[in-house]
Amino acid sequence: MVAHSLCEYGGGEEERKELEAYREIHFPALTLLKKTTKLPSPAMLREEGLCPLTPEEAVLMLAALGFGRKTHIFIAGANIYGGRSRLTALTNLYPNLVTKEKLLSATELKPFMNFSSQPAPRLMHLP
Question: Can you cite a GO biological process for this protein (predicted)?
């Protein structure tokens, strides 16, 4: 989601190159669009509130809305941009993080694999 959003997250030139390389592999149509169309800058996207929240921003938002430490939070994404270490602020304040891997066994998850954006919505309909 971060790579598809065209947003940047304060990682400088190294992050920009990393995200661009990821986009070229996983979102070739987006890469082509960037080369042929003038798109909004990452700064403008962020200013307009069109970027996904970072884990740190999510913590601030949840706390401001009054969610306490005992709140259970479901992490729908398979891979968090920046790795598990990016979740430190979130796990420190909200230790009850749940992922699909914690809810289902590998056997139960198998029919949902290889659908990068589909496991979370499909799992929501399980009895």
Answer: fucose metabolic process
Phi, psi (5° rounding) for residue 126?
-70, 140
In sequence order, the β-bridge partners of residue 75 are: 99
pTM beyond 0.85: the answer is: no
Residue pair 85/92 in contact by the 8 Å Cβ criterion = no
The vertex-66 CA angle with 63 and 67, nearest 5°, equals: 75
Looking at residue 94, its amino acid is Y
Measured distance CA(113)–CA(13) in Å, rounded: 33
Element (H, E) at 109: helix 106-109
Average pLDDT value for residue range 75-97: 81
Domain boundaries defined on the chain: 1-52, 53-127
DSSP secondary structure letter of residue 55: H
